[in-house]
Amino acid sequence: MLTLATASEFSHYVPLAVLLVMALIFGVANLVLTHVIGPSRKGKVKGTTYESGVNPIGTARRRFNVRFYIVAMTFLLFDVEIVFLYPWASVFSSLAEDSGLTPVFLGRCLFFILTSIIAFAYAWRKGVFRYD
Amino acid sequence: MTLMGEKLATIGPEMVLSVGALLCLFLGLARSARVRHATPLIAGVSLVLCIVGPMAWSAARPAAPGEIALVLGLAATPMAAFLKITIASIGLLLLLVSYRTPDQLPQNIEIERSGAAFDPGQTTRGEFFAFFLMSLAGAMLCAGADGLVWLFLALELTSLPTYIMLVTTRQSTLAREATVKYFFLGALAVAMFLYGFTLIYGATGVTQLYTTPVTEGLATVQSVVAEWRQEGQPLPLMLLVGMGLAILGISFKIAAVPMHLYTADVYQGATTPMTAFLAFVPKTAGFASLVLLLGTLGWPLPEPIAAMLWIMAVLTMTVGNVLGLMQTSVKRALAYSSIAHSGYMLVGLLAGSAAMEAGQPVVASGIAGILFYLVAYGVANLASFGVLGCLKRQGEEAETYQDISGLHHRHPWLAAIMLISLLSLIGLPPLVGFLGKIYLFAPAFFTGEPAMIWLVVIALINSAISAVYYLRIAAAIYFGQPSEEVERDEQTARMTGSGIAATAAVVLGLGAGALGLTDMLAKAADQPGKVLIQPADTDGDEAASEDRSNIPSATAGRN
């Protein structure tokens, strides 16, 4: 069970503040560094909006490479896997040690990961990752 | 065994099917052609194993007192066990009917011919059998659902594979059109019943439909509704609207009015064995879900829901049969017959267990009627589509009345199988369709309400109307001029599958009682969501109490 913190205790917000500061530094540093170090070649094409390699100006009713969908689906595979792993991980550590549930939970998660691996291997064999 | 482990034990058949599906998916892309061709065999073996395996497992390890008493080792409720056996058996016949389908696709023939240069990106054989098994596993999960979330996921698992199977098993614009229609209307239906589910949750505050040992002592939709009814409170509008939307959405799966519009086009566009699949699997899943959902309200159903189902039943039967009369394609006529049969089954859903609780015999349970009719419709439907699938006109699938004209003179066996299935669909004794209709209409009649008796009268008139187009098919087969262009496809397995189905229609019609089916149905129909617990005896419940003591710690840790 969680112990409720009183309103005066801000100490456990410190990690959050550190995270925020780090994110800010990372973002700003990246912008500044690319500006300073990076070569600056400007051009008409380079200045246009980036839209996944598709020309952003003109009609939207055009044909897309079907690969976009396949990549999106492969992404979904891992995305969904992560979504399910999170709650599993948060529950796993709070399982009672003497309950004998730990092997069951671990086995279940391993089976779930196995299905994702099979899906990944299937996609590989189907030639999803072949770009030519 | 722990309680969560117990819950896992209630889905043994589904787990076997999922492993089989993964194997099919994987081995369908194997380098060796022999392994690739073994995928239908793997599918067949997993369909047998999914029933035999858990049965043997539970026989070897009987439930300890206080655990869920698995029904035959297959499921927590008798209804789910009955449906799982039904789905696996008819699934096996469907596999016989459809296992050559991927081999007949032009692109697959091309791939096999090219030999050494096997391109895994182009084949769809392994996928077909994998999705076949997944869809059946989804239907089984529907039957065993105890909560709204589970039910939703199971319904989705049933339908999503069918969209892909539909488009990959036939290369024609018709199939593509059918898939697009089926997919978009299916998505609309999903949105509807999902919204209905959220309203049910909003009204009752729980997603659990029935009590299971895992959720012992917590509120369920059933207990909340029962409390309201006991206190004499009217059911909240939100619950009724939610149930209504859920019924409308699920009526897409069972092809009932007003969500029937896709049926004829999709059944016609699909390749014939696939049509047989579409007419059985989603329908079974849909009716199982409806029984479980309405079971939380209890029979007799609340007035607005009953009125809605009454109108749906009448419209579904009538629209199905009247439009069936007007078709020139046998496939479309059988599609409308599928709609009409859903209408008959809605009569059973409406009657429910009302008459049985009033002390009438087993025949008086509408739920038993639905379960039996799913079998009856399943075998007859499979036999008729199987026969159609055996015929070809110039390489194309046979589907018009001319295509089957004079079939008797050329292929008497196929004609006989078709005749049996048609007579069973009409509901003539001694075939299984007759018994099915008695089981469906008798409970409605026994309730003694005028509205229900009128419903039975309308259903009987509809059965008479349906005889016209079924007999027109039979007349074309037996009295028509044989057409030279139509030939039999060399499909031994397909013919065997429909032959077994037709035999089952006769055997079940004659001896459903002798086979113990009625006893099983009586158990299955008694409170659809009721989970049986092994009664505690005096000795040896030490282990069980130890198991129990784990639950608080496990759940407390999670909170």
What is the structure about, briefly put?
With about 130 residues, chain A is an all-alpha fold. Chain A contains 3 helices and no strands. Chain A has one domain: Methane Monooxygenase Hydroxylase, Chain G, domain 1 (Up-down Bundle).
Distance between the termini of chain A: 55 Å
Determine the most extensive contact between two protein chains. A-B, 17 and 17 residues
Put simply, the count of helices of chain A is: 3
Count of distinct strands of chain B: 3
Radius of gyration of chain A, taken over Cα atoms and rounded to an integer in Å? 24 Å
Cα(first) to Cα(last) distance of chain B is 22 Å
Number of strands of chain A: 0
Strand line-up across the major sheet of chain B? 2-1-3
SS class of chain B: mainly alpha
Layout of SSEs?
The complex is a heterodimer of chains A (132) and B (559).
Chain A lengths: L13 H24 L29 H26 L9 H24 L7
Helix pairs in contact in A: 2-3
Chain B lengths: L2 H7 L2 H16 L5 H5 L1 H22 L17 H21 L7 H9 L10 H19 L4 H21 L4 H32 L16 H10 L6 H17 L9 H7 L2 H26 L5 H23 L4 H22 L2 H4 L8 H24 L1 E3 L2 E2 L3 H4 L2 H4 L1 H15 L5 H15 L3 H30 L6 E3 L3 H20 L5 H9 L16 H17 L1
Antiparallel strand pairs in B: 1-2, 1-3
Helix pairs in contact in B: 2-4, 2-7, 4-5, 4-7, 5-7, 5-13, 5-17, 5-23, 5-24, 7-8, 7-13, 8-9, 8-13, 9-11, 9-12, 11-13, 12-15, 13-15, 13-17, 14-15, 14-22, 15-17, 15-21, 15-22, 17-20, 17-21, 17-23, 17-24, 20-22, 20-23, 21-22, 21-23
